[in-house]
Fold these 3 entries.
Entry 1:
Amino acid sequence: MISDLEQIFSTNIKGMKKSAIRELLKLTQRPEIISFAGGLPAPESFPIDQLKDITNEVLDQDGIAALQYGATEGVTELRQILVDRYNKEGLNIELKNLVITTSSQQGLDLVAKIFVNPGDKVICGLPSYLGGLGAFNSYGAELVGIKFDDKGMRADLLDEKLAELKTQGIKPKFIYIIPDFQNPAGITMPESRRLEIIEVAKKYDILIVEDSPYREVRFEGKPQKTIFELDNSGQVILLGTFSKIFVPGFRIGWVVANEKIVDKFVVAKQSTDLCTPTMNQKIAYKYIEKGYFDANLKTIIEQYHEKRDNMLSAFREFMPEGVTWTEPEGGLFLFLTLPQGMDAEDLFKKAIENDVAFVLGSVFHCDGSGKNTMRINFSYMSKERTTEGVKRLAKAIKEML
Amino acid sequence: MISDLEQIFSTNIKGMKKSAIRELLKLTQRPEIISFAGGLPAPESFPIDQLKDITNEVLDQDGIAALQYGATEGVTELRQILVDRYNKEGLNIELKNLVITTSSQQGLDLVAKIFVNPGDKVICGLPSYLGGLGAFNSYGAELVGIKFDDKGMRADLLDEKLAELKTQGIKPKFIYIIPDFQNPAGITMPESRRLEIIEVAKKYDILIVEDSPYREVRFEGKPQKTIFELDNSGQVILLGTFSKIFVPGFRIGWVVANEKIVDKFVVAKQSTDLCTPTMNQKIAYKYIEKGYFDANLKTIIEQYHEKRDNMLSAFREFMPEGVTWTEPEGGLFLFLTLPQGMDAEDLFKKAIENDVAFVLGSVFHCDGSGKNTMRINFSYMSKERTTEGVKRLAKAIKEML
């Protein structure tokens, strides 16, 4: 072994830590623990039998192509069907505007690879998806957090911050937004706020990265147009994924953007993994094409809707005064705020003693704030376990009050 | 669209070009073209029927886990069976020494992410696998090329170069070696040279990255010990992949290294794609466990052996005086050298007119040398097409002489 291993690691990797969530998940895998910590889809939503049939069909009809290297851009029929779906929704994109990625996480990694030099600023919400922050950090980005209200990132504070940075000659590389059923906050940005954010982005000539893994999982209320569609000028990079609306184990995501930006994604992806698994893409295409996707998505929405309702009623029944939470119209997460001054980290230890787990809200805050907040997942656990878990959590909170 | 898009790209992405090979492959996809350009495995080697059975079995018995998120380190049973196979061969590793990657290309990307700061030197062979060079470049590495003889990278020149760099206070981050059936040169490093390279690496306290995608595809001669095994001190990072010995479309590779290094791979991979597709890993495990892997590998070896022999006899029959080529004991490629002063780029245009394609050797040379060399793939085309292709190539060369 070489003598100075710790010294020769890159500056960026030295700054990276193992994901708090993924490490936490390991700790919370004792079977007796009721875990609201992960972001796992409900296993009962996985279309196992359909996938057996489709895989046989793909291997029978198109096996050689399915097992061979594929184009870096992705399998054309899958890209085309995704393009068609977006256009049906109101977007106006072509094949050249969409590239398949090996999970949406790769989309986040590549966004950073394409735009971030060490020390560059990136704007993110307080809070924001940890995996996004981690990817940006891994290229040496310096994160600038903008506070939320009940409509998501505040456009006025964003404007103020960008003005302040501008006086210092600093132009952030992009604004990172998860507009629908935000992870972790569970908040959906209404159209008015989306338009305000676009206006500020245009004023300061800055890209928006719209991370949209949950958008299709809407239980109620009116679907919001994507920021990409509302902008319609090429200023927005839209990231999508099958992880929450089909299966995560296939690791298929995609990026929709201006052709010049997609071109850079392709270049960056070539040196990263050459191409996304071909067979998985071909199966995903057939799954959509046969109509299974839309049918199964309905089931997922119904399941998660029930699970959310069940969790909310358990919250109302068991949570002590002073604890508040978001009531998301879709997605997988809600966000819980403890009374001011209470520390979710202390609660975490007590919760684990009580065999219930969650994720500290502070890990989603790039400035370390949010000490009294927690992210709660409602998609994974059964309704019975959820109710019991909320009881245990409420008990732990009461003990601390 | 923002006004200064071209300016805001990262320094690293500005330095990256689309892979010459992958772009070339697009140009050479006219059906009439006989292409020796790609690095594609033979489609007739793909075990389609076995994969249908195994996929059904995995989805039946373990469907939920196969479709869910998995551990960043990879599926344990797959890691374990790979560890066992290496140990049977003579290595002495544990589960903690092996992490699954989404293709060996991801292994190369992560190596660079973990070690390379912009401006760091990386040692590579003249020539070396283009995808490796691309991955290192994408993190701003400066490549230092070391010439080959018929045993691969010259240890004496490596020693000289490292001594020279040391006087300048420069210590490269690692030495990149493809010891078996090297891509593109088709050369295998004998044990004596491996030991010399290890000695030099130890003398200058530098890591070795051993990229080993072809090692199992040996037609004749004695299998060489991996550099990892010969070193046995943790100074070597070994990259493996299923792409050439099973199927490339699954995108499964792995990294074997000292535990502290594996730990960094896991951290880096978390922000890159969270985990490699779970189902693909579970299928690969069963494919090995059922004995299909070893049986099918034998068939691949026989097929490629025949294809190589066929190509070599066509070369002997048709190539004009002054053209030389390597005669690899395995793998997918051989390397052809034109008479001094002849330019493979001129030949390429003529070859395409004659409906035959190859890859310019110069793209594998980080210093731009190798103008009169070319990489020839013999695994993909049928024997008949290969013979015809060699005829066409020989004709083009004769026309230029």
Entry 2:
Amino acid sequence: MTNLAYVELEARYRRVALLGETSAILHWDTAAIMPDGAALARAEQLAEMQVVIHGLKTAPEVGELIGKAETQLGDLDDWQRANLSEMSHQWTKASAVPEDLVVALSLACSACETSWRSARPAADFASVKPLLQEVLDRTREAGQAKAEALGVSIYDALLDDYEPGGRSADIDRVFGELQAFLPDFLQEAMDVQASRPSGVLPKGPFPVDTQRALGEGFMKAIGFDFDFGRLDVSRHPFCGGCPDDVRITTRYDEDDFTSSLMGVLHETGHAMYERGLPEAWRRQPVGNALGMSIHESQSLLIEMQVCRSRPFIEWAAPIMKEAFNGSGPAWETENLYRLYTRVKPDFIRVDADEVTYPAHVILRYRLERALLDGDMTLDELPAAWNDGMKELLGIVPPTDREGCLQDVHWYDGAWGYFPTYTLGAMSAAQLYAAACDADAAIPAGIFDGDFYPLMTWLRENVHGKGRLVTSVDLLTAATGQPLATDVFVDHLKSRYLA
Amino acid sequence: MTNLAYVELEARYRRVALLGETSAILHWDTAAIMPDGAALARAEQLAEMQVVIHGLKTAPEVGELIGKAETQLGDLDDWQRANLSEMSHQWTKASAVPEDLVVALSLACSACETSWRSARPAADFASVKPLLQEVLDRTREAGQAKAEALGVSIYDALLDDYEPGGRSADIDRVFGELQAFLPDFLQEAMDVQASRPSGVLPKGPFPVDTQRALGEGFMKAIGFDFDFGRLDVSRHPFCGGCPDDVRITTRYDEDDFTSSLMGVLHETGHAMYERGLPEAWRRQPVGNALGMSIHESQSLLIEMQVCRSRPFIEWAAPIMKEAFNGSGPAWETENLYRLYTRVKPDFIRVDADEVTYPAHVILRYRLERALLDGDMTLDELPAAWNDGMKELLGIVPPTDREGCLQDVHWYDGAWGYFPTYTLGAMSAAQLYAAACDADAAIPAGIFDGDFYPLMTWLRENVHGKGRLVTSVDLLTAATGQPLATDVFVDHLKSRYLA
């Protein structure tokens, strides 16, 4: 290697990544086990980590090294070039945002998230609104700075953090297609459902220890290695940590095991992606996950495409029944399948079925764009939320707890994140269809709880690619076409109208 | 404040402290809950944190700022002067050690500690010896560099990290006095004990959940606030985290609750010290704990002086009995007191009684000095350990598991730490005697499980002082004299010969 500038950049970004991993473990700790009184100290620790990381990322010599390295591209292979390009992109964004804004934003997010923890159960939007305003203002400020550096809109600049290269114009088109299809489809699916016996929830209580053991068993079946990860509890389930220490969380309900269990399977899909990222590129920008829509495609592929399918439920139902010593018709495969594919407009996004889920996302996407563009104020948010729910799903949340307080995202500074859920759901349908076409052992394995063929295909076609290619190119290489609404539509039709 | 250099130093050391807190939480995570496979990644994360902290501490401008600030001492009050003096001391030590040695030492410790985790249960010293050699070599190298900067011996330079200003000459004297007293006293205490009924261990099993709940109850009685801390499990019990997030650990034995419970009370003593450090000086060097002997004095004051005393056991015995639904003579106060004050030479330091404990420490102190001075090799360590046990306690460990593999300290890089245990035990006796003299409500409260008067005295005389004064001055102010062997001796006589 004669491109010494590139070599030096790798060393520097390795340091950035190690500090990022440290922050990720702290974030997990904050959500999963930190005592409440430590919140302020933790906020300051995380902000200081941000300062150090920001300092390393934006040091003037980094820009110079990137410039130098780019003059010797011939020395670099494809992975190295993609890595350098990621570095350059990150540098452009990071150096656009001044350090004091990084600190202010980090502190604002910590304070707001902490306040949201009590505001949500109390349905008290007013109490958290001033802190959310601070988060919004600082987010817009940072977005504006990045937007100028990238030559895109504020929204697209924020979206870029979650969906590199993503553009709201593309999202508008895809979401437009979905909105044209879904309302009628939802009615049709509900009609079909009404013509059949309705699912019966097995009767609890379901002890938390049993639920956890069952979840861990399924995680292992999918391929999760507990030598490199954990399952814990948090208010808002997530997948955190780093590729060699992947930490997923869930929340348990002793009266209903089905929701927590499926949540665990969902986060396991995220975890498998992290674990499967290219080991040779650990701690380099090109070794990271591609973006949140592909990340979500991996959780939804496991949850929606596989684990809510009839073949999986056929395998899993007797295991669930045995775990809880269940008896009676509620434990029959057909009933559990009905429960796991029930369609019902409801208030809470994380509990939504895959038919109504896009409506939740479209609402949030509209609202966050309006708030960021200055077309709406936070005072108007609760009512706008309720109006949107009425329009898109025909229901109105009784309080803000089931409305604009339900998701942590905005309160924690994740603006521009929501659309990736639905882009992920569509990508999941497309990837799973391609996987099943590519290898008949993949769908066949699910009948026996054998995920090995599927994971092998995903490692090769998704996980192991890191950021070598864009998400459009990844989808095209793996499935033969870029993101296409019709594959998702076909999936919904075959599951809910057949 | 016109001493602007000092103001800038406070800001800089605040950053150092925040990063130190982050590292402390990572260390806790490593010991308490990290999945094993993440060990290598964690080692690299911790090493990178060390690099960042070392960089902040040793930046040339820090030395310049300290020099400038010292020219305007008149602007500073006592706390600020003590703070500046701590900064200067830290700077001298930190800047003596080159960054690559900091990284090498951090990585060597992580690797060795990980290897020790399996070497210990396997009683396989040979497997961990090469990694321990690396730790020893790097420790000696760092010690040599600091020794030159401080103008002291290598051992005293390492001791300084745990006992600021401590000198092995003083330890030699105190340990000499103890060694002259203890062997005969041990025999006398054993004779007295043999003349009485021996303690009977209550019969288990004792479920872990009940043990934890009982421990938490006693922690609360002492004053531990779970809003600012946690109790978890680790192989080697410790108190970690930071003052606003104090995390103590224990390990449970379902056949014997007594040892884990007393361990919890011990760590609670450490935790109360951390929580009681002066809030106005959080994240400044002067706001830190004074050193490990005073730290240990706080855990041993709670454990040895209070919780193994008859008044405490009288209060606690019925609570223990009720928690485990116990019945029969094993649960009587007198029996539990006998159990908790039993003297018996044994192999394991952490399980040792307060009469034999100093022998364990004296052995380790001798051995670590010989290893650091080059008077002994690691090949000779297992036999030297066993010879020392034979000489000091009259017993020989059956394997290295009960011998030189039992403590994590050396394997994790803590050289020069061991003497602080016994210095702490002596300080504990002296402080508790002074506290009881100062306020009759203190010993009276213990009969009712009321720790408030004791904690009030400790906050005022120990915890709240931070590093404002040296440990000699702190002891003298609180007890009327510097560390004195006779107070400890009196305590032992009154407990074991009466």
Entry 3:
Amino acid sequence: MGKHTAFFHNRPTIAATYSVAGKKEGDGPIGKVFDYVFEDEYFGEKTFEKAECKMLSTAINGGISSCGCGKSDIDAIVSGDLLNQIVSASFAARDYNIPYIGIYNACSTMSEGLAIAAALTDGGYMSRVAVATSSHFSTAERQYRYPLELGSVRPPQSQWTVTGAGCAIVSAGGKGPAITAATFGKVVDYGITDANNMGAAMAPAAMDTLITHFRETGRTPSYYDLIVTGDLGAFGSRVLKHITGENGYDISFNHVDCGEIIYNIDEDEYQGGSGAGCSAIVFNSYIYRKLKDREINRVLFLATGALLSTITTQQGESIPCISHAVAVENEAL
Amino acid sequence: MGKHTAFFHNRPTIAATYSVAGKKEGDGPIGKVFDYVFEDEYFGEKTFEKAECKMLSTAINGGISSCGCGKSDIDAIVSGDLLNQIVSASFAARDYNIPYIGIYNACSTMSEGLAIAAALTDGGYMSRVAVATSSHFSTAERQYRYPLELGSVRPPQSQWTVTGAGCAIVSAGGKGPAITAATFGKVVDYGITDANNMGAAMAPAAMDTLITHFRETGRTPSYYDLIVTGDLGAFGSRVLKHITGENGYDISFNHVDCGEIIYNIDEDEYQGGSGAGCSAIVFNSYIYRKLKDREINRVLFLATGALLSTITTQQGESIPCISHAVAVENEAL
């Protein structure tokens, strides 16, 4: 069996982060930690798609500024989003005189990008890489499900796509929390076909990567202060704890899911937040700050993605899922 | 300005390749070099999308076999395609117990993937990485343009989406042509809005990456035996030669475009082939064999991509383009 975990020995650091969130997310329980909250869901643009693109640019610009460097100091933008042909990322990248590496693993894109950026900087190929991803409730809803105007009733196991964009600047050397390892996930498909029940579909993928990570690193759950998944939601998070526990790894004491903490759970959101922007804004604000402030020192971050499209659903396919894990750690004092 | 070129000093090699092509491609001028040609455009599946997915699996399996190794020797599959949410790649990856890194830069995905795989292997993070991409005339046509049944007339500047999938196995060390450098492209947009005129839209992106490559490596066009672009087509290739020449780099003597050589140009194909599968099958058969046989020893391969979607076209956006370059070289005897 090939090895799934890459170790980064030169401490590629997350030098800075930035998060851009919509009003609903800004009103949520961790809303105060987002760097920028906008009120109008069009973000001053004519279409939701252009709004999403602007969110992503705003996050990238914010990351670069927070890093104390300029655009010319960034060697690449590693970015992707949920729209067909990842157009938010591609159109955002158009405004920079910086190489663009487009990636897509659905809502696992943030941790996928961090892993790629860690390899590019740790290996000495680049000095600083901006990793960014986004989602927008209104672009995702009309692409994946139904026109908003239809007013479809949402089933209780559904989640709410987060409007937000997050960016991390990964730097060769320097100070700050470092990406010390990445476990790349494989595709896991348990045959679930309900596109409204993503949390349950994605939990086995998160478990697979988690257990692979523990086996290949020799670590146990207690090595980490927090094990953070992307957007399993409340139900999916319970599923993950349960099935991981059954396999001998108890994560019930230190597991948190970004989708579960982003909203005050009420009728609309049901199981919590989802979308590539969900883990992107929570990791690049709430989690990153806790690391910077040394409230926590070791985090395993696993964004989780469902790799379906409307056409695969129409053709009766089940939902393949994936999760990539990155270990982010402070240096011992 | 950041550096756009990464140098790989540990000679990550392309240990093996495999190409799967449709009947039309098999009947073309270089049809005999493809490893596998299938007659039925459904490839024995019920839908064109499932056929594309099977093409990709066939290419990955072929690459692994040609390499003389097993699936368990592959540390990651780096793959993407043109379908929404790159579902061909994701669903193909489902059949392997191997980490999956989804990427998307439209028809520039093959060289993007080779560059990422080179970094992952050269840096010591992985031993062997399968890089694969595909396109299928019938899936692309109905997603990007019109239903096939409509029988729309194609304008003379249009190209024909290649049905094909290619795979390269990039290996840490070993024998064979090595990826010695990669120049990552930035997004270039000259304001072209005609989705039937991709060659002209993409040529400036190829030029930008080419010139950046020459400047950052100190090389001139004559360093290479061949400078291979992806799918500019006949007109786009002429545009590239012209504008690159105007900037002081004459590539007229050693430039070839995969899209230009894949078909016997007649009425249907107009400017030649396009699609992520175009450069994937030409590079992973015709070009790779010439390298292996030492007919040529230094190749610069620039797959070229147009980063549009139907929604950006509908919203009146122009076409952002990109091209990533990889230098593939034999060791001196």
